[in-house]
Request: fold
Amino acid sequence: MPKTKFQRAMFALITVVITVPCFVIYCLSIENGGISNIDLLFALKLIPIELILAYLSEMLIGSPLSLKLALKTFPPKEYKPMIVETAIICITVTIMCPLMTFLATILYTGIFPGIIYHQPGFDISQFFINFIPNFLQTLVQNFPFALLGQLFFIQPLTRKIFKLIFKNS
Reply:
């Protein structure tokens, strides 16, 4: 798969462009007990912000750390490529899901009044009191979706798109 830094950056970008809209809509549907046209319009405000946060997180933390841990635990000389790739995906989800859930908890609970998501009567003290429970609940809801989505939908699609773009490499 990706062999150069540029290819790694492109692979991460493709992954993030597929993943973020899925998660924004998923999180909004959980938050609101379903999805509506208003939620989809609101998602359009969140997606660019989360794309930037997810891409930076993936490039600076997720990808380097998951690659290092996966290759240390499952050396490519000893394991089949599919096992190594699956380990990289699983470790990436284990790193990125809590990180992005942390950031999303801040965005979705209204810490930026009027800019992203403002709940009427927003109280900063309540935000801090409820942050850990909100974060943990969101993480528990996001992790299965993240793991299964990456293993069975997002990464296969990302690999197919990447191969189309870099077929001569």
In short: Helices lie at 5-32, 37-73, 81-108, 124-165. Residues 3 and 165 are 14 Å apart (CA to CA).
